[in-house]
Amino acid sequence: MIIKAPAKINPALDIVGKRPDGYHSLEMIMQTIALYDEIEITKAEKIEVYTDSPFVPNDERNIAYRAAQAFFTATAIKGGAKIVIHKNIPVGAGLAGGSADAAAVLNGLNGLYGAELSKERLEKIGVTLGADVPFFFTGGTCVAKGLGEVLTPIVPALKGFAVIVKPSFFVSTKWGYQNFIQSEVKIRPDIDRAVSAIRNGDLNELGANMINVLESVTAKKYPRIEEIKKDLLKNGAKGAVMSGSGSAVFGLFEDEKSAHLCADKIKRNNEAVFVVPLI
Fold first, then answer.
1. I need a surface site. Which of 48, 98, 249, 259 has the fewest CB within 10 A?
2. Which H, E and C letters describe 148-214, residue by residue?
3. At residue 192, what are phi and psi to the nearest 5 degrees?
4. pLDDT band for position 138 (50/70/90)?
5. For residue 18, what pLDDT is reported?
6. Known catalytic residue: 124?
7. pTM greater than 0.90
């Protein structure tokens, strides 16, 4: 069985408080994009994980491994899986590649072993692995609240293309949230206004609300974040913002031609640039 696991971007991200358990309460928009990891899953006697990325571990430190463990625990099925991950989603980029892989493994094992777990049950298992995991059982365009697991699909979904720039540095999600200070946030997204813009198909209006409060942490340490945003906007993006805790930055475009023209102009030798449709 081969499954495609799509990445996500955040056109808007706000941190609205801190929970009693120490985690942050979020309000954000999440969007799947056509940038995929490919995952091969076959039945086996035990859980084995293999990746083609030197930055991703091949043991229980890998979230895909833990997803398989969680599946067999939840279903009480005695079995295992050989999981081979072909990484295309950059690591340490704020694109949720690990969470996407975890959701894909849960979905794959559910089908492979005929467990017939409901979407709701998969989401409950997923959130124990990571706050972004439940989103990938819905995909498309969603407002996410709480840890990120309280999801409301936006209809009609956002349409267009993204130019994604992955700088040469990596950012730890944990580091980003641990160093976030509410009082240092100078501007916040208006999530309701952004949702309205998406429903109206107005990328210009959405662009004005493409704000991520975690830039107050990441962009302060890495000035390249702001430089990329300016380059994207100068070359036709309707809006530009960092995704998640970074380091990837993306701009939104109405058509593929404009997106490719921008990508060609802003490429640097040590940075990865992707042009992908929103899905």
1. 48
2. CCEEEECCCCCCCEEEEEECCCCCCHHHHHHCCCHHHCCCCCCHHHHHHHHHCCCHHHHHCCCCECC
3. -60, -40
4. very high
5. 87
6. no
7. yes
pLDDT (0 to 100) of residue 22 = 79
Please report the DSSP string for 41-64 in residue order: EEEESSEEEEES-TTS-SSTTSHH
Catalytic residue among 37, 101, 132, 231: 132
Question: What percentage of the chain carries pLDDT values higher than 90?
Answer: 92
Domains in the chain, start-ordered, CATH in brackets?
Answer: 2-149 (3.30.230.10), 153-277 (3.30.70.890)
Q: Which residues of 151-177 are buried (b: 16+ CB within 10 A; e: fewer)?
A: beebeebbebbbbbbbbebebebebbb
Question: Which band of pLDDT confidence, cut at 50, 70 and 90, is reported for residue 20?
Answer: confident
Is 8 marked active-site? yes
DSSP 253: E
Contact by Cβ (8 Å): 162, 250: yes
